[in-house]
Give the backbone structure.
Amino acid sequence: MSAIDGTTLDGVSATTLWTLHNRATEAKRSDGVIRDPWAVTLLDAISYDYLKFGRPNQSHALRAVAFDAAARAYLTDHPRAAVVALAEGLQTSFWRLERTGVVDQVHWYSVDLEPVIDLRRRLLPRDDRITELAQSALDTSWMDGVDATDGAFITAEGLLMYLEPEDALGLIRACAARFPGGRMMFDSIPPWLSRRTLKGWKLSDRYIAPPMPFGQSPDDALALAGHVDGVRVAHDVALPPGRGLWRAASWPPLDRVGAVRRARPSTTLLEFG
């Protein structure tokens, strides 16, 4: 099969190629923190100047492993639940979880803009358990098609930071109202990094990351449980340890230093009441 041109994606949609590059490059390593054959297949199938995102690192692979662990735990207890992957991009979570046996009975909803959904349709296997919804995550009509009778696990992996604060919080609020008893998982960047992106965050001399106006500290995210109706509990989810400096940075005592904790990215799991 001839290579597919990745430049059909632009703006925020193109950042899915950034995360794919990091994840698949890590998956190719013999000592990689993630096993993700479909990510490797996608990376090799899409022609793109990936190095304009800078040197690959472990960040997005570690994030994916953390999301997988939380989804696996929920689906073990709710084997017929709905999984909604908001702004799924070129994530390949479904097939990683399939290897663990927890998606046999789920219905998976992949929500993203049409150019991304088109790439998924062209490059990833078709499966009756997956419904693709070509629309913005902020167009909450996607909720109307989700059967959450047996539970719902909603992911917003690499999404909320690109939204305006009122839109990000509004999406959380809408999910909490619509899916009581469900879970929602998302990641956040700290406020200092959000401010930096608004001034132009250069990943290389050829690429400036899109603005990320929504930033919050780990404690800001935990406080959602007291400020957003329907959010019963919020958990700060630690990333798995990586290699080298990534392992050192995840040393638990560091998180007791207030300045360090406020400055780090975070991953949050919400329980809806």
